[in-house]
Structure formats: C-alpha cells, structure tokens
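Blinded run. Sample ID left blank on purpose so nobody reads anything into the name before looking at the predicted structure. Input follows.
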Amino acid sequence: MDRLIYLDNAATTPVKPEVLDAMLPYFTEKFGNPSSVYSFSAGNKEVIEANRQIIADSIGAKANEIYFTAGGSESDNWALKATAEAYKDKGKHIITTKIEHHAILHTCEYLEKQGFEITYLNVDENGMIMLDELLASIRPDTILISVMFANNEIGTIEPIREIGMIAKEHDILFHTDAVQAFTQVDIDVNAMNIDMLSASGHKINGPKGIGFMYIRNGLKLRSFIHGGAQERKRRAGTENVTGIVGLGAAVKLAMSNMAERTKKEILLRDYLIERVLKEVPYTRLNGHKETRLPNNANFCFRFIEGESLLIMLDMKGICASSGSACTSGSLDPSHVLLAIGLPHEIAHGSLRLTLSDATTKEDIDYVVESIKEIVDKLRKMSPLYEDFVKDK
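Blinded prediction complete.
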C-alpha cells in the first residue's frame, strides 16, 4: 500500500504526540493510586482535579459537575439508567430520537423491559428533529429528554439550545450525547440548559477507555458503579489517571485550535461534497447541508453496495465507513438513513467520510478520483444499473 488516507475520524482518532507525551510519566514514574494517603500519590489527585477543571471550562461547567467514565457508551448508560431509577416516582416516560447512537437506543430498549415508556421522535429528511413533535410528545410523567448534539453518521447538528429551553420550561431533565460534537462546535451547558452530557476521549485525539459525564449540580442521580468512594461516591473504581491526563491534554489542545481547525475542515468538507455531487451521478448527500459537523460528509450512491465500495477504497489505502463504527459488522442498512426516509436499496450504498486537521486537499482529490473509478466499476457490474440505463 503506497499511501494511507484516514477519513474515519468519527470512529476513532490517533492520539496526538503532545497528548501521549503528557500521559507517559503516569505509566511509569507517577503511577500512584490517587486514593492512597502518602504524598507520592497525593500529587495524582491534584492532577485529576486540574484536568477536571480543563474539561469543565470547555463546556462552561463547574469542576464538581464533571465525572470521569470509560467513554461515551458508559456515560450514555449512566444518564438514562440513573435518571430512570432516581425519578421513576415522578414518571416513567422518556423521549429520545430514532437516530440516536445504539448506546442510547439499546439502553432505552432495556428500560422498556423495566416498565418505562419511550417515545422515539421522527426526524426530517435532513436528520433534524421537529420541535413541534417534541412538544406534542411531552406528558405529565415525562422525566427525561435525550437528544444527541450531532449525529455520528450524517453529521446533522440538532437544535440543542431550543430543546434545552423546552425541557427547562416543562421541568424535564435534558441529556445530550455530545460524543461527536465535543470540541467540534461551541458548547455551553448553562446557556443551552443541558443537565447531562456525554463525551469520549478517543474521538478528539485522546486515548481510548476514557470519557466524562457532565451532571448538573442538584440532580439526585445515584452511583452507576458501586464499590469505592471515587468520583464523589458516584463512580467507583481506581481512577484512570493516565487516561484522565490524556483526555485533559486532548481537550486543551482541541479547544486551543478549534476555530482554525474547524474552519479548515469546513472548507475541505465542502470541497469534497461539491466534487462528489458534481462528478458522481445518482448520488445524494445525507444530513443537513449547512447545519452539520465541520468534518462530516455522508453520501449514498445508487446501484451499488456500500460494503463493496469500502473494500475497494481500502485497497487504495483509504479508510472510510458506511456509518457507525459500532455497527460496521452489520449487514442491515443504517437505522439513521432509514429514519430520514431512504429506501433500503439506497441506504445500502452509503459512505461516511470524516476529516481531520491532517487531511489535505490532495487527499480529497485522490479520494474523489478513487470514488469515481470504483463507483463506475461497481455500477457496470450491477444489473439494476443496467436496467436503469436501458429505461433511460
């Protein structure tokens, strides 16, 4: 393989050198357990709190509202299950959407088996929820609204500020899965009336196995993992100091260059979208054209299978995906693409390309030329395309 072009940054990202350098001492010289009483370990407790403050500042929160977890899926599970347990006497109704990450959807399925009722909001053809439908779904027993900040597959950014306002006006808790949006767009938990927020380190050039949950002060959520008294008695287990340091370093770096980085990504993203739509016929862009993540481009190519496209792109050194990394082994079409109204045969031909600050215009040009060649080759082998051309 002559070259490697990595365009699957929504799945995971490489750890930045600066982040790794910050982490290394905590594998060896500074390995102490922060819960120990001697001074050698006390320094690690201070390091944890310093990084907690960095993360809190990045979303306009207080340091004591940040809880370290193993990642986005754990944080999502904690938000839904702990809210359900704590507020079940008030009601057993939860509102979410049909396009959430499976960490939310599968948790909702679990809660339905525990007697909770879940309303799954529809989205429009761009993947945007309808606020009037949200309002109409609210009931006296609604205890939680959980809507992702931005979709991990098609990149659409939801109207989070408006959702937060609606939740606050109706005295309902509001959680958002911000795994894809964190450090990609501005987030202010107070201005947006967000009560809980999930995020993950490995999506922002930090290490895997670390994330955080923002929980607004005053919420009566109980422990999610029982055991020791770590994380103010809400999340037991010896703190992942190395991961926390890496997460803090990644957040600090991402926030320091967010404006410049996202501006570059948007320019390249739009260049990619323009070329693909113009040069590859019978192609559609999935997700909102403007209100989308800076680095996300998602397409459907008619008359081909996305899996074949991915394999042939891989042979050219291009890493991409057809949707969520968590469902990449599934032969079923994306639940997100079906939710925006695409028929199965079109949804099967999807391709998600997610850029980074390392992506270049030359990379995009190579990828577009490769897509054109591969799609043309696959369509020539498709009887559906052959029939379509004959009918034309």
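Unblinding after everyone has recorded impressions. The longest helix spans residues 258-279.
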